[in-house]
Amino acid sequence: MPDELRRLQEEVRVLQEEQQKMSERLKVIYQWLTHLDKGLAQREAAPPPAEPVAPAEPAPPPPAAAVTPVPPPPKKPARDLEARIGGIWLNRIGMIIFLLGAAFFLKLAYDWGWINETVRIIIGAAAAGVLLGFGERNRRRGFTAFAQGLTGGGIALLYFTIFASFYYYNLISDVIGMSLLILVTIGAVLLALYQEARAVAAIGLLTGFLNPALFIAEEPRFVLLIVYLILLNLGLLALVYFKRWNFLGVLSFVFTNAFLTWTLSYRLGHPHQGLPITDTQIYLSIFLLLFLAPLLLQVIKRREPLAPVGLFLLAAGAVAYYALSWANLNHDFPGYMGWFTLCLAGFYLLVGSALLPSAKDDPRAHFTAFSLAAVLLVVFVPLQLEGAWILAGWTLEAVLLCFLGLRLADKRIRGGFWALLSLALLRLIIVEWTIPYEPEHYRFLINQTALLTFGFIAVLLLLNRLYHRYRKETGESNILAGAAGLLLLFFGSMELYRFGGALAALTGTEEYYENLALMAISLFWGIYAAALMIAGFIRSSPPLRYAAIGLFGMTLGKLLLFDLGFLDLAYRIISLVISGLILLGASYLYQRHRDRLNPEAPQPPEKSDL
């Protein structure tokens, strides 16, 4: 007993020593963490190395409950907001208003004969030079925000002056004017890059879109305006690509498409004065490529994912181009819009294929391009095909999407498949099932509607097999199988009713064949339910057996609530007898195979030979 007591005391002493060492280590760790927190708070580049000093009596670390939570970052004081509004926003707004006022003043002075064209251009160029000089001077003095506004205003005024000199006044040739605009665009881009100044780009380049609004005459020179817009967008998109100033790309996209919309509306209102159809389509395609190129370079060359703004430009560019192209081409080439849609879908398939190697860096970019191609293919079908071929085309596209979604294990592609399959199903029910038929030419189960329905059911069963092959879950595959079964049930009932109507119209005995058709529908439901019951036992599938029970319930409801009240006595007897026999057969199946329903249930005792 004393030996065990000493052994126990020795173990307690060892545990106390280990606890003391652990407390010292935790103390050192806690000191280092506190030091690092202070260093981050003070934004020190490299904290000075701490000399390891062993404290004489290390204090235990504070308990977890006593740790003070990190306070939230302090809100900006109200004076910062006031300084931002007064120093930046007032500067930007004031410069834009000044530019508008100067432009209208010069126009007024010319209209009233105060100055001629040459003087007006000289005044504009001189004012632009003064603004650029004062902007650079204030930038060197440290007034960055104020200087950026002046510099941007100077660039915008140069755009106004040069554009007016060759477009409106013909003081210089178009070639010289465009060359000067190229130099101004390059200078504006270099200044914005050098000064890291978004304001220079926003005021200097974006205000260049005011030129078409201020200087368009009664007969616009659209070729010069289009070339001018191309140069302006090249400068803006260069800044978007190199500096990632995405707001410039969005504003440029909005302003450019607004101008292109006005160009198309002008041509439709003045067919002999606007741009020709072919030239307009070429320019629309140039702008599509212009907005698409920076996005492709960012993903393919830089291996950088697209921001939400980039994805917006990728999708919105396709929508805007297709809408403008439709307005441009549909009036003169209505029969070719389907092929145009197909070509555009192929273009975006190529774009998605080009983005596919960068899928690890940006999984959304190539998917967006492929989605655009898929939507265009869906639109192509009703534009170029007619009648039942529309249903066939949509169904084929749905099968392709299902295979790709399962093969690539992509839920997004499968979501598109379900949407397209639902669209094809609606087309089948709303359009194909409602086609009127002629009784003298009607063939039971051998007609276009029946062939389309049976083909669609076969496709659903094929897709069900694909789901069983590629996925373990049975939820979506059960939906496909259930849809196929419901289609067969509803169409079979409709076809029986149509057959009775056709016979009634041909023979003139409407009541007889109407009763016969209603009785046949009840028998069809009962036989269908029995088939489901048998398949449920063979495949050991409770959903099939539950569906059979439900259909038996529908059959009984029809018999009791409809057939007994409207059918003749003979048809009542036949419906009731046959339906009763079917129900008895189903009950026998349940009794015969009750061990499959509950294998753990006690079995009846075996008969003895004695």
Offer a quick outline of the entry.
It is built from 21 helices and no strands. The longest helix is centred in the N-terminal third of the chain and has 40 residues.
Report the uncertain regions.
Answer: 43-47, 49-59, 61-71, 599-603, 606-610
State Rg.
40 Å
* End-to-end gap: 74 Å
Average pLDDT over all residues: 76
Helices, by number, come to 21
Question: What shape does the CA trace take?
Answer: flat
Helix/strand-derived category reads mainly alpha
Estimate the strand proportion.
under 5%
Could you give the count of β-strands?
A: 0
Helix content: over 70%
* SSE sequence, one letter per element: HHHHHHHHHHHHHHHHHHHHH
The largest β sheet comes out as: none
Task: Write a structural description.
- The longest helix has 40 residues, at 2-41.
- The protein is mainly alpha-helical and 610 residues long.
- The protein is 77% helix and 0% strand.
- Among the domains are: 2-59; 91-224, no CATH class; 387-508, no CATH class; 522-595.
- Helix 2 packs parallel to helix 4 and helix 4 packs parallel to helix 6 (198-204).
Keywords:
610 residues; mainly alpha; 21 helices
Topology:
Layout: H1 2-41, H2 78-111, H3 117-141, H4 144-168, H5 174-195, H6 198-204, H7 210-215, H8 222-243, H9 246-269, H10 277-300, H11 308-329, H12 337-355, H13 363-384, H14 388-407, H15 411-432, H16 448-470, H17 475-507, H18 510-538, H19 542-566, H20 569-592, H21 594-597
Helix pairs in contact: 2-4, 3-4, 4-5, 4-6, 5-6, 5-8, 8-9, 8-10, 9-11, 10-11, 11-13, 12-13, 13-14, 14-15, 14-16, 16-17, 17-18, 18-19, 18-20, 19-20
